[in-house]
């Protein structure tokens, strides 16, 4: 599932609720991470001092019942990032586990960012794209807020 749309529209709000529902069920796990955190964790294994390998980290990401990738498109979108994200999404796809993606980008930009093959895997078996096309909740949450819109 892809949750995409404007800033402050409640994508994380909803994704957190979903993750909590999954984790509260006996024997099920969920994880919500930004793409930056995923890339950083994988890069950390390239250090000679690292006790974990890249493959082990990818296996760990593939092993949780629900993985939510947040801030997709916020990074540079380098080829190395695309390869890493493909490895994670594909490992989960092969394990037949669902992956949720959160992004501010347009669908076509998400495809470009993740690459066709990764995006296509998200669509299988009734994959859904939800458009959060309303205003930011942050603006009217704080009644005292005097930030201009
Ligand atoms: N339906 C809602 N009910 C109550 N609070 C909400 C609702 N939707 C969003 N919020 C609140 O509005 C704020 C912004 O929501 P959230 O962080 O989920 O937005 P987002 O879509 O992930 O934004 P961004 O794209 O900037 O990351 C949070 O404080 C969140 O708790
Ligand atoms: Mg968010």
Secondary-structure topology with pairs:
Layout: E1 2-5, H1 11-23, E2 30-34, H2 35-44, H3 54-63, E3 66-72, H4 79-94, E4 99-103, H5 107-114, H6 116-123, E5 129-132, H7 137-141
Parallel strand pairs: 1-4, 1-5, 2-3, 3-4
The structure holds adenosine-5'-triphosphate (ATP) and magnesium ion.
Adenosine-5'-triphosphate is lined by residues 7-13, 104, 132, 137-138, 141.
Give the structure's gist in a few sentences.
The protein is of the alpha/beta class and 149 residues long. Helix content is 47%, strand content 17%. Helix 5 crosses helix 6 (116-123).
Question: What report would you give on this structure?
Answer:
The protein has 7 helices and 5 strands. It has 149 residues and is of the alpha/beta class. The model has no long low-confidence stretch (mean pLDDT 92). It has one domain: Rossmann fold, CATH 3.40.50.300. The longest helix has 16 residues. Strand 3, helix 4 and strand 4 form a beta-alpha-beta unit. It binds adenosine-5'-triphosphate and magnesium ion. The site of adenosine-5'-triphosphate has 12 residues, from helix 1 and helix 7.
